[in-house]
Structure formats: C-alpha cells, structure tokens
Amino acid sequence: MSQKKEMNQFIRQSILSGYRHHSFSIEREISDFYLKGRGDSSLEEILRIDTYADVLAPDRIRAVKNTLICLITVISRSSIRNGADSEISFSMSDFFINEVEKQKTEVELQELLKEILDRFRELVEEAQQRKYPYPVSKAIRYINANLFGSCTVKGAAKFTGCNPKYLAALFQQELGMSPKEYVRREKMKEALTLLANDHLSVNETADILGYCNASHFIREFKRFYGKTPRQYVM
Q1: 74: Cα separation from own chain's centroid
Q2: Residue 17 lies in a domain
Q3: Into how many domains does the chain fold?
Q4: pTM above 0.90, yes or no
Q5: What residues make up the domain containing 55?
Q6: Where is the HTH araC/xylS-type domain (predicted)?
C-alpha cells in the first residue's frame, strides 16, 4: 500500500471511529489563558498527556511522548504571542523535547508536563514585567486573560489597584494609546486569527471575543481595519 493510501485509510478510520481532536483554537485559548496568569484552571488537567495516547503511535509511551511534543509546540508559540522572546521560547522548546525522550514512564512525563508549563509561564511573566512599569504590566496581564469575554478598563483598573484615570495616563505614556484602545486592538488581532486561521464564522468570533452581538463586532472590525470581516478574509 502506498503511503498516500495508507494515510487516507488512517484518516477515514479515525473519522468513522467517532474520535475527535481538540480544535486548534481551543488549545490556543487554553494555553494563552494559562500563560497570561489565569490561575483558576490547570492546563495539565485539561490537555493531559494521555489525550492522544491511543492515536499518535502504536506504542503507548511513544504516543504519550508525541502528545507532549505537540503540546510543547503549542505552548512555545503561545509564549511568543504573549511577549516572550522567540529564540528563547524555541530554545526552551528544543530543550524540553529532548527531555521528553529521556523519560521512561507516564508518571515521569506527567511531572515533566508541569515543569514545562511552569517554565513557559515564568518566561511570559518575566517578558511582560520587564517591558512596562508594574501597573501597566499587571493591567496588560488582566486584559490578555479576559480577551475571550467581557474585558473592561474598569476591571483592569480594579485588578491593578489604580485609579482608572491614572492607569489611562500610564498607558498613554508607555504604549501611546488608552487602555480602551489597547483592548480593542488586542481583540481585533485575535479576531483575525479566529476568522482567517481557525475559519470561524463572524457570529462565533463575536461570541468568543465577548461582543454583545455580531453587528457590534462587525462595526468595530470595520472601524479598525477599514473592511468588514467578510471582505477582509476573502
């Protein structure tokens, strides 16, 4: 059997079995939330190393290792999107992929997963704290963690313990924009990814990003990009 036929047969059997993978957008959203300081959920409890243990290789330990390598790829790229230096993030990814190969048991791999997540989260936190004064860094962390939902300047100010006007002045000084403009910019950046890369509908994207309805989202998108979402991604 040719490799192409074998691949198509594997894909067909996988689909017919009813097995479904995590969507890329869900994996990215969860890893982004973890890296941006959401302490109320544990990524390793959601995307476990045994998620694809019966799919990614005939041997279970090999499959678990492959699962962990895939997760390292997702988390390292999430780190870069959240401010980490790309060379450092990729080098950490290379290091941990080599560490994966050294482990012998699922218990060891599960322990390594926690280490991987902790180190990448530290990398992102250090990058954010190094770039801006503490109140701005903390506000950015809050905004990034709440992009997929309701995200207000009032909430960011409360999270930092700053007066909203003082926080706005700091944002203007450091980023050249208000907190509200920063929220809009980050939501619009995520909107492009969801629409163009993840191929979500306008309604789905508006809902994920916390807009009250699709019409409001379309108006904001056109105001920011000069085109409607449909015109932009065509």
Answers
A1: 8
A2: no
A3: 2
A4: no
A5: 22-131
A6: 137-234
Residue showing tokens 């904001």 = 220
CA distance 140 to 129: 10
Q: What is the distance, to the nearest Å, from the Cα of residue 99 to the centroid of all Cα atoms in its chain?
A: 23
In angstroms, rounded to a whole number, what is the distance separating the alpha carbons of residues 8 and 2? 10
Could you report the per-residue pLDDT of 86-122, keeping only the tens digit for each? 788 889 999 999 999 999 998 899 899 889 888 888 8
The pLDDT tens digits of the residues spanning 56-88 come to 567 888 888 888 888 888 888 888 777 787 788
Whether the Cβ atoms of residue 148 and residue 208 lie closer than 8 Å to each other: yes
**In terms of Cα–Cα distance, which of 83, 53, 87 is closest to 71?**
53
Q: Which two tokens stand for residue 211?
A: 């807009």
Question: Taking phi first (over 0 means left), then psi (-120 to 50 degrees means alpha), and beta for anything else, what does residue 199 get?
Answer: left
Domain boundary (105, 131, 157) is at 131
